[in-house]
Amino acid sequence: MPLRIALFVEGSGSSVPSKQEHGALARIWSEILPTALGCVSRPRIVPMSKRSLVALDRSNPPLTGTLPLDLLFMQELAKQPFDAAIVAWDLQPPWDPQAARCRWRETLDLYRLLGHSPTLADPWRARSQARYEALTARTTPATRTRPHQLKRGEIGVLCMEPMFEALLVDEPGIRAALGLKRSPADWPTAWKRTNVRDPDHSLLGPAIGAAKRSQTSGPILKRISGDMFTRKNEWDAYFLESLLANEATRARLLRRPLVRRLQEILP
Fold it and tell me: pTM for the whole thing?
């Protein structure tokens, strides 16, 4: 019997996205990606804000209106039981796109805080602590005997570097998804840069805007009327499906680190 998995995922910068945005977020993580990877698991999606990760560290000042991740975890477990969980978050927080961040450091901190949580129940807490000890025992972050495959009572982590939208940075694929045969005026130009920290707002958002101003864009611009601020998850889901539908862009997408890490973790 497949594991019942809950996936706590950052999306739209809000722990309570709109109904449309929640539905798109669930399609990305519970349908589109697992299907593309041939996974048997279809996780239950729990939207969260990165503020829940910040609030997990009780040494930080309390964040008004934000439920720490361990409390959110136990609340969702009581609401609808699950066997294992994944926590997925953007490395780059929306409130500080220039901050220096380290995926390895954030992963260690998350397991350390979960392992010392006053709220998280066993076996979740004990196995988070065991995972932290196993990771800190490595000589280098890349040193491992085998990939981490999720088991019952465990929490897997997926730190998206710098954010989920980095998965979608494929200029010809995005141009085709927007119904464009060539780049229109005001088309963004930084597609091949490797240090773009906010691809949602510096590449994908401007591409949508340029397509809207073009006279040759496809019908998708009418179907999803908003932009990367107001309808982010819907655009992400559409771009992801479009890239996976084309043989060349699908091959490139499936080689991205985020996809490979998700494939390792999901049963």
Answer: 0.91
